[in-house]
Structure formats: structure tokens, C-alpha cells
Design a protein that fits this description.
By secondary structure, this protein is of the alpha/beta class. The protein folds into two domains: about 1-250, Alpha-Beta Barrel (TIM Barrel); about 315-375, no CATH class. About 40% of the residues lie in helices and about 20% in strands. The protein contains 15 helices and 15 strands. The chain has a nine-stranded mixed sheet with strand order 7-8-6-5-4-3-2-1-9, with helices on both faces. A three-stranded antiparallel sheet has the order 10-11-12, with no helix packed on it. The protein is globular and about 60 Å long. It binds iron/sulfur cluster. Iron/sulfur cluster binds near residues 18 and 60. Iron/sulfur cluster binds near residues 11, 14, 18, 22 and 94.
């Protein structure tokens, strides 16, 4: 199965915590960029396989694309890729971009899933993060989309934010659940070097949440989401039955994907990974010359094994141990069993009768340590 990812790196402004590749270049860059995306797709159409099962427009802020640019992009996708009739087609959107007019444009595309970065329903925190929307705009955006028949929605939240209490985060989760969306992703705040937030912490302008509070938020998240009937199918992701993100699930199961655009990554499902450079102008120039501006990496056995362990153990299904023996060697299978012994005894991992090694609920809270102990 081939998943297609398209990176739309335009943002109206930068959020203080963000380290994704994006730019605040003006709208005049959109059409040349879309033309380059379509050309890259044409160049790489063979990599997409006979049918594209999942398409994901991520960013950046794809909802910042003008009507003209968005429709041009889908015209190009239709011309050069065969979208499966049952394809999951997701667009990431910022709540303040959602309007009746934007939804009208969306109807002219085959998009059937919208993922929104809400992050918090506290206006003070949203301002600290330099998010452009308010809590009310986020609620309204969900309502508008649902009314228009887009019920396959996902909302993102962040916990461990400066000034956020356990009660406030619990209220955010409760708000998401009350909105009736079928998918929720929630991430612990990361202070990535090079971001404004990192600087703010260094200068003492904000106080980092302590680890205990973050863990309590995670616990509250799981209790509330599972209590409301959502399945905890990946460390940071929850979904109603049948509403898991098919696109992101294919990353965790090691399927091939093709990434188009500046800063996008691709993987051939075997040993080759590549990434396009993070420079929009250079990307357009290279594609116009018929060259893809990318770095390629051939993954060695240890890297492949480490990624298999890390990605599979993030999922509810876990790592199928016989796969380690088949893909690698019986020695590697023995190695992981030996390394897992301590975590199994402590109750952080469990080996199921069907051969899957999974994190227990307790293990979820120390997952980084447990997973790194199993690595090569
Ligand atoms: S809108 Fe999204 S991609 Fe753009 S700066 Fe904010 S978090 Fe980053």
C-alpha cells in the first residue's frame, strides 16, 4: 500500500513551539509551489503504486492554500495518481481558516477527513503559544464542518503547557469528547532547540511543567478518552472504532510512503529513505530543472531493527516477535526476548500468547525507557 504525503509549508505566522518546516512567505508563492508539487508527483508517479490508499496534506498549514491553489493541486493529483475509491484523504487545518466559503471549496475536492490543531481551549495559553485562533473559533470550526457533513474529524491537543493545570487539561479533553469528534491526538509539549519557546524557557520567561504533572495529564487523557469509548490505538492517538488514522497507521506498520514538497520525507518500505530539502525556493527551482532536491539514506540492519521496535511498540497491537526472526535473524529474536525480560517482570511489557510484545498501561508511562532498552 502506498500512502502519499504532501507538505504545504505555508503558515500565516509561526507558533512558538513549532519546529516543523514552514514559512510565512506571501501567497504569491503558492501557485509556483503547487505547480512544482504536481511536477514532482508526475516524476515519481511509479513510486505511488497502482493505487493510492491514503493521501495526507500536512504542514505547515494546508488550509492556508487559496481556493485556486487547492483546486489546482487536486487537479494535478487526479492527473498523475490513481486515488483508490475508498482512499482516506486528510487535510490539516487551522481553526481560524474554517469558514463556510472554505468548506464550499473543500466540497470541490475529494477530501474526507480534516485534522485540526486545536492544542488547547484556554485562550491565555493559545496566546502564549502564538496560535492565531481562539477556543471559540475552534468550537465553531468543528460545528461548521460537522454541519457540512465532515464528521471524520481529528483534533490535536498538547499537554504539559506552561501555566496549564491538570484540571485545565482534563477540561480540554472533556471538551473534545463533548464535540463528538471520532479521533483525538494528544502530545506532551517538547522544547525543541531553535524554537522561540526554547528561548523563552532559557530566559526564564515561562516555567516548564514538571514531569509528574505531564504524567498525570497523560493518565487523565487515557482515563477520559477510554471512558468515552475511544480506543487508545497508539501512544498519542485515540479513535472511535473504525476511525483510526489509516495514513498514520501505515507509518507505524512500516508501509511505503511517498512525500512530496519541500521538507517531505519518503520511504520505500524496505531500506531507502529520502527527504527533500527544507527550502521552498530551492525546491521550486530544482523541480523546474527536472531534479528532486533530496538526500537519500540506505538504512542498515540496526537502524531498521530499531525503527521496527520503536514504531510497533507505540501501537496497541505491539511488535510481532516472529517478525523479528523472519526479517532479521533468530539471534536478533533471542536478543529482544532477553532484553525484554526485565520490563516484563516489572509489568511494563507483556508477551501475549499470539506472539505480540506490547506495552502495558503502566509501561505507557515509561515507554521511552522501555523501548530504548530493546534497541540494538
Ligand atoms: S500553524 Fe502549525 S506548522 Fe505553522 S507554525 Fe503553527 S504549529 Fe507550526
Amino acid at each position: 500500500m502506498a500512502g502519499l504525503y504532501i507538505h504545504i509549508p505555508f503558515c500565516q505566522s509561526r507558533c512558538v513551539y513549532c519546529d516543523f518546516y514552514s514559512t510565512t512567505l506571501p501567497r504569491v508563492w503558492q501557485m509556483p509551489y503547487v505547480r512544482a508539487l504536481v511536477e514532482e508527483l508526475r516524476m515519481r508517479r511509479a513510486e505511488c503504486g497502482p493505487q493510492v490508499e491514503t493521501l495526507y496534506l500536512g504542514g505547515g498549514t494546508p488550509s492556508q492554500l487559496s481556493r485556486e491553489a487547492l483546486l489546482k493541486l487536486f487537479e494535478g493529483i487526479r492527473a498523475h495518481a490513481a486515488l483508490s475509491p475508498t482512499a482516506e484523504i486528510t487535510i490539516e487545518a487551522n481553526p481560524d481558516d474554517i469558514s463556510p466559503k472554505w468548506i464550499e471549496t473543500l466540497r470541490e475536492t475529494p477530501v474526507n477527513r480534516v485534522s485540526m490543531g486545536v492544542q488547547s481551549f484556554d485562550d491565555g495559553i493559545l496566546r502564549t503559544l502564538h496560535r492565531r485562533h481562539t477556543a471559540e473559533q475552534a468550537r465553531r470550526a468543528v460545528g461548521m464542518l460537522q454541519e457540512a457533513g465532515y464528521d471524520n474529524l481529528s483534533l490535536d491537543l498538547i499537554y504539559g503547557l506552561p501555566g496549564q493545570t491538570l484540571e485545565a487539561f482534563g477540561a480540554d479533553v472533556a471538551t473534545v469528547l463533548s464535540l463528538g469528534v471520532p479521533h483525538l491526538s494528544a502530545y506532551a509539549l517538547q522544547y525543541e532547540s531553535g524554537t522561540q519557546l526554547y528561548e523563552m524557557r532559557r530566559q526564564g520567561l515561562i516555567e516548564e511543567a514538571d514531569e509528574e504533572l505531564s504524567l498525570s495529564c497523560y493518565q487523565r487523557l487515557i482515563d477520559l478518552a477510554e471512558g468515552a469509548g475511544l480506543e487508545h490505538y497508539e501512544i498519542s492517538n485515540f479513535a472511535r472504532p473504525g476511525r483510526r488514522s489509516r495514513h498514520n497507521s501505515s507509518y507505524w506498520t512500516g508501509a511505503a510512503y511517498v512525500g512530496l514538497g519541500a521538507g517531505a520525507h519518503s520511504y520505500d518500505g524496505a531500506r531507502r529513505r529520502s527527504s527533500n530539502g527544507e527550502d521552498l525556493a530551492e525546491y521550486i527551482r530544482s523541480i523546474e530543472k527536472g531534479e528532486r532536491p533530496c538526500d537519500e539514506e540506505v538504512l542498515d540492519d540496526d537502524t531498521l531493527y530499531n525503527e521496527l521496535v520503536m514504531l510497533r511498540l507505540r501501537t496497541r497491537e505491539g511488535l510481532y516477535l516472529p517478525e523479528v526472526e523472519v526479517v532479521y535473524t533468530p539471534e536478533r529474536r533471542l536478543y529482544i526476548s532477553r532484553m525484554a525480560e526485565r520490563a516484563i517482570k516489572t509489568g511494563w511489557l507483556t508477551e501475549k500468547a499470539d506472539g505480540h510484545l506490547c506495552l502495558t498501561r503502566q509501561g505507557l508511562f515509561v515507554s521511552d525507557d522501555v523501548i530504548s532498552d530493546l534497541m540494538a
